[in-house]
Write a structure and sequence with these properties.
By secondary structure, this protein is α/β, with parallel strands linked by helices. The chain has helices spanning 44-62, 78-87, 91-108, 124-136, 212-222, 236-250, 282-288, 291-299, 311-335, 339-344, 355-371, 376-400, 404-427, 436-451, 455-470, 474-486, 515-521, and strands spanning 9-12, 17-20, 28-33, 66-71, 140-143, 146-149, 186-191, 206-208, 225-232, 255-262, 265-267, 270-271, 307-309, 489-494, 497-502.
Length: 551
């Protein structure tokens, strides 16, 4: 388009306001995002966080920044050790396995690979060095092989969260330990216990505490001053608050310019929890729904707002993704023979009425909305659907033109609009490396699995319906169509042919029942019990974290 790209604004949790993004080094961005504690399959709260920061990463690159993106693995932790002991597996082997499972999930969700993905166990020396600096600067102390950070010696503790120590109660955010000088002092180094991973240190054998790892690894890869630090809003306190304290205690010049946090994810209007049974892993969802459908769903709500996960919403996103790829495939089918000729046509090609405006509006909405703190919903729910509607109008116009020259006079509009749409989809991570046809087939395969039928079953139903209609058994034909629609399979009559495509399952109409009788017969069923039984094989039972991150 040749225009100057818009100025990016991001909501800074530290400043509690949107701010114009200005990197420390012009043209370069340094970004650190807290990763997972790898002891189980990742849940959709993780997906919410890492899809959000993947969009930021992609958009920064689109703005021509050179980005160094660091996302860590916590591969030694109490949860990992506890799980390993439960299943009789070496902690490092268990953690390594779930690191790979996480990477598989991220690849499925089309999250780009970060520049660095450091693991705690590979950076113990850097962690010990940082702890030693904190002790020498008078902000930490050793007790019986443990090392604790002294919050009393860091006056700015609480500046990110806005919380004061007196607002907390011992035992809620930190474990009660009488050896601590202040109940809210936290562990930098944990003394070794029998059977746990351990490393030698000046304070005795042990392992790193949780918070110190991110301070040490961010400094290792990005220095003590960098642009963006991200994570779920549940990390603001205590994790990110403790990171700030540690980093500044080790190096007073330490600073992060922008603290970015994504909102929580709920299930059916309630916070995810094990007791409610409304907890989903990424793998559970993608067993039945295309990963792009999950990504589309997560992008449909602004990253800082809470998002409500429900089967209905993921069904809607699945149908939306199918529509996107079917329209793109229609473009391929309609324009493949015209693309080369459109460029070499002797007569100058022009946009059809409204074509230039549609392309310009999509580009403008895309850039301005993403520049406004990554405001995705308008792009996904308004700008893109409007562009797809226009491209379908032009494709329908093409079908009505018989002469090649008439088709060429129209082709420029859908060809250029398709290019703009693909650029938008690429930046927001919804453009697959597979062909459109391959993605459509994957979406159909998932729909068949959800419906519990095979494609042969559907084709037989289509034949039965055609026979019923031929025999003027229209009610039978309608019932066949309704039964499939209730399973998420839509039959579409195209000329003399009937095809099928996935759809949002359509509820069967209930027979007319008098109001009083319906009230008496209606069973007392708890609301929002939508979670399906999904056949996911797990090697061991999963705990149920409620937050958007295991941190």
């Amino acid at each position: 388009m040749g225009k100057k790209k818009p100025e990016l604004q991001l909501y800074n949790s530290m400043a509690r306001e949107k701010q114009v993004f200005k990197p420390i080094v012009e043209g370069k961005v340094s970004m650190y995002v807290c990763g997972v504690t790898s002891y189980d399959f990742s849940h959709i709260g993780h997906a919410r966080a890492y899809v959000a920061f993947d969009v930021l990463y992609r958009y920064l690159r689109y703005l021509d920044y050179e980005v160094v993106y660091v996302r860590n693995f916590t591969d030694v932790d109490d949860k990992i050790i506890r799980r390993a002991n439960e299943v009789g597996e070496d902690p490092r082997a268990l953690s390594g396995r779930f690191c790979q499972e996480y990477l598989n999930d991220m690849a499925d969700l089309q999250c780009l690979i970060p520049t660095h993905q450091p693991r705690v166990t590979d950076h113990v020396d850097q962690i010990k060095d940082m702890i030693a600096k904190i002790i020498s600067n008078g902000c930490a102390y050793a007790v019986d092989g443990d090392v604790f950070f002294s919050v009393d010696n860091f006056p700015n503790y609480g500046k990110l969260s806005g919380r004061k120590l007196e607002d907390n109660r011992a035992g809620e955010q930190v474990a009660v330990d009488t050896r601590k000088r202040n109940p809210f002092d936290f562990a930098l180094w944990k003394s070794a216990k029998p059977g746990e991973p351990q490393w030698d240190s000046p304070w005795g054998p042990g392992r790193p505490g949780w918070h110190i790892e991110c301070s040490a690894m961010s400094a290792q890869y990005l220095t003590h001053k960098f642009d963006i630090h991200g994570g779920g809003e549940d990390l603001i306190f205590p994790h990110h608050e403790n990171e700030i304290a540690q980093s500044c205690a080790a190096c007073p010049e330490s600073n992060v310019n922008y603290w970015i946090h994504n909102g929580f994810i709920n299930a059916n209007g309630e916070k995810m929890s094990k007791s409610l049974g409304n907890y989903y892993t990424i793998r559970e969802v993608t067993e039945l729904y295309h990963p792009l459908a999950l990504r589309h769903f997560l992008l449909g709500t602004h990253y800082r707002s809470p998002v409500n996960f429900s089967i209905t919403q993921i069904e809607i996103s699945s149908e939306a993704v199918f529509y996107i790829y079917q329209t793109l495939q229609d473009c391929v089918d309609a324009l493949s023979a015209l693309r080369g000729e459109s460029e070499t046509n002797s007569k100058p090609a022009r946009y059809i009425n409204g074509g230039q405006e549609c392309i310009t509006k999509l580009h403008s909405d895309f850039e301005t909305r993403l520049a406004d703190d990554l405001h995705m919903p308008v792009i996904l729910n308004a700008a893109l659907p409007e562009a797809f509607r226009f491209i379908n109008v032009t494709l329908n116009m093409l079908k009505k033109k018989q002469q090649k020259q008439q088709q060429l006079s129209i082709a420029k509009t859908p060809i250029d609009l398709e290019k703009e749409i693909k650029q938008v989809l690429d930046v927001i991570g919804l453009l697959s490396n597979l062909t459109y046809a391959e993605v459509l087939q994957q979406l159909k395969d998932k729909a068949l699995r959800r419906a519990g039928v095979t494609e042969d079953d559907v084709l037989r139903s289509i034949e039965e319906r055609m026979l019923a209609r031929k025999n003027k058994e229209f009610s039978k034909g309608d019932q066949i169509r309704s039964d499939l629609a209730a399973k998420g399979i839509a039959l579409m009559d195209v000329g003399k042919e009937t095809i099928w495509r996935p759809c949002v399952p359509v509820q069967q109409e209930k027979p007319n029942v008098p109001a009083q009788q319906e009230k008496q017969e209606k069973p007392n069923v708890p609301a929002q019990q939508e979670k399906p039984v999904i056949p996911v094989e797990k090697e061991n039972p999963s705990p149920t974290p409620a937050e958007s991150s295991d941190k």
